[in-house]
Specification:
Low-confidence stretches: 1-9
Structural class: mainly beta
Helix content: 10-25%
Strand order of the largest sheet: 1-2-3-5-4
Number of helices: 2
Strand content: over 45%
Length: 111
Amino acid sequence: MFVASAYAHHGWSWAEADQIELSGTIREISMAPPHPTLNVETETDGVWLIELGNPRQTERSGFVQGSAKAGDPVVVLGNRSLDPEEKRLKAVRITVAGKVYDIYPERIRTN
């Protein structure tokens, strides 16, 4: 986990260009720098690490301490790790209980 944390804040080079949508249940939330994170458990794939923006950017999206809690359903749109063995996603948008938080609005690509 240290290796992932060490390069997590260095842009998007570790992530695929295509975006995916992941649905699951929040198991843990951390609002600590360098990036707030969610651990999200899916029905089919287990637990994924979801990276949000830096703390200020995440706050600007409206997602702040108390916006979500463990047990809440979540839908995440983002770019997954280039490593197919790594369950890690850089979120551009998250939706918790019907409320949408655009973490990186300029990067959102929807069909």
